[in-house]
Amino acid sequence: MSELEIRALTVSIAGKYVCRDFSLALHAGTCLGLLGSNGAGKTTLLHTLAGLHTPDSGEILLHGAPLNTLPRRRIAQQLGLLMQQQEDSLPASVLETALIGRHPHIEFWRWESHADVNIARRALKMVGLDGLEQRMQTQLSGGERRRLAIATVLTQDPHIFLLDEPAHQLDLHHQLALLRHFAALAREQGRILIMSLHDVNLATRFCDQALMLFGAGETLCGDSAEILTAGNLSRLYQTPVVPLNWAGGTVFVPDQTREAGHT
Amino acid sequence: MQRRLQPVSLLVALAVLTIIAFFIALAVGSVHLPLRGVIEALGGGADPLTRTLVLQLRLPRAVTAFATGGLLALAGALMQVLLRNPLADPYILGVSGGAAAGALTSLLLGLAGIWVSGSAFVGALVSTLIVFALAHGRGGWTPTRLLLTGIVVAFGWGAIISLLLVLSNNASLRGMLFWLMGDLSYRSSGWLPLMVVSAGLAVCLPFARHLNVLARGETLAEALGIAVRPFTIAIYVGASLFTAVAVTEAGAIGFVGLVIPHMLRLVSGSDHRTLLPGAVLLGGSLLMLADTLARTIVAPQQLPVGVVTAAIGVPIFLYLLNRARGPL
């Protein structure tokens, strides 16, 4: 039995289809990259998989159980969502914010244990925020807040990570360090990663599978080595893309010669 | 980075403050009583005059003041989480406006006592239901929508209140103004609001960690396993009920519900497991002290307690806000 299974899923938002009749089974250790232009529905699809958006039809099975029959807390114990944006109108410290991730694992009447605090501290160390634990989250920079949100989902420690643009706002070092960490979680511990990315080259590097959302419900899903081609990517982004080969592999870049020809 | 007080020491300090405020409220007044006399009277001893003064006049008033302050601070903390807006207070959604319209109508009709508090309570409930139904509407119930609905309904009540004030005769006008500014002289025995605040805190405390999560946004709370919709409805109903009881007891006492939760956040952080009991104790103490002052500053005249609350609270809050380096 696959750990997360999508059956004939049709999702739409505001009258626009995100995917139609889409099926996919995800097994332990999979890292799925979600690609699409702005407004193609990447966030909506991730929220649907997290049970926060109701699909038009179809089913999502978490370890064989339909997602919509499970209590929210059970879902949150297995499935973590990194949101694209985080509201923070009321003040809280960095450590308090990370500890929020333990919420689904702590019994109703209990306080966070030392073990929970240690998990949060380890996550903060992982994202490079150790030493800032008592700082207010409103005093952090944009990139630091983003890393704090990542630390919160790492503290939640779910089996399935749904990451909405995890690389967004991060500097090059943290992009690579954190995606490497997530990839290692998938490879070594059999976790499942589904992440939306705007940088195609991060997808080719870290994702073994890719799902392209073309808009209007059209999707293309498969091994990233097979479907992440210049042709598909050019169509996906409506922008000519060419592969550049070098010793480290293939990278895709916008085709400036043809761009110039366009204008 | 400033140091924050540990939760336990904060709550112990607030409990001590509450006890001190309680005895001050019982000892100070038109007749100053020695502390020993107060304690004896509470134990059933002391001379009859002291006993009457303490048990029948000052005790009910102190209990009412404590419970009202506690309810307002608790409701304020809940509203701030529900709306995720630091400017939210118990009255922001129009509960006090409805209560005031009800109470003032009774006062205008020359009614007193139970009629005034009864119609205030009914007015508060009506206002709660109106805002709830309208904000729910079709589809979503976002904090912004709730806030706007509440504020507009509050404006409506404000117009009705002005109308009632204009229509009133001079005899009832003074009572009405006192009611609007918050006044504890229509007090009941105080045990009912005390029971409500105790029960309310007991019900809210186990959900304090849920409140911590909800404070970071509804989607995140949902993703972290909270059934957000029933939870927010429960918060709304609870906060409205606490406010309705407080307003019914003591009129529209401003300031406590807005500022007490912020004071605690500035001093000890935003964990609702300390914030909620802390708010009840600090709100209760502040109102007991304010009421004592209101009774004594210009005795035998009484000031509306709302005026004194602001006089104590505004400088303290501004000091704390100024001392805190970070943004609120």
How does this model look, in words?
The complex is a heterodimer of chains A (263) and B (328). Chain A has 263 residues and is of the alpha/beta class. Chain A has ten helices and twelve strands. Chain A has two domains: 4-228, P-loop containing nucleotide triphosphate hydrolases (Rossmann fold); 239-263, no CATH class. Chain A has helices at residues 42-49, 72-78, 94-99, 114-126, 142-156, 172-189, 200-206, 224-227, 230-237, 256-262; strands at residues 4-13, 16-26, 31-36, 57-62, 65-66, 79-82, 160-164, 192-196, 209-215, 218-223, 241-246, 249-254. Chain A is globular and about 55 Å long. In chain A, 41% of the residues are buried. Chain B has one domain: Orthogonal Bundle (ABC transporter involved in vitamin B12 uptake, BtuC). Chain B contains 14 helices and no strands. The two termini of chain B are 13 Å apart. The relative contact order of chain B is 0.18. The mean pLDDT of chain B is 88. At the A-B interface, helix 2 of A face helix 9 and helix 10 of B.
Question: How is the secondary structure organized here?
Answer:
The complex is a heterodimer of chains A (263) and B (328).
Chain A: E1 4-13, E2 16-26, E3 31-36, H1 42-49, E4 57-62, E5 65-66, H2 72-78, E6 79-82, H3 94-99, H4 114-126, H5 142-156, E7 160-164, H6 172-189, E8 192-196, H7 200-206, E9 209-215, E10 218-223, H8 224-227, H9 230-237, E11 241-246, E12 249-254, H10 256-262
Parallel strand pairs in A: 3-8, 3-9, 6-7, 7-8
Antiparallel strand pairs in A: 1-2, 1-4, 4-5, 9-10, 11-12
Helix pairs in contact in A: 4-5
Chain B: H1 7-27, H2 35-42, H3 48-83, H4 95-108, H5 114-136, H6 143-167, H7 170-181, H8 191-204, H9 208-214, H10 218-223, H11 228-250, H12 256-268, H13 272-296, H14 305-323
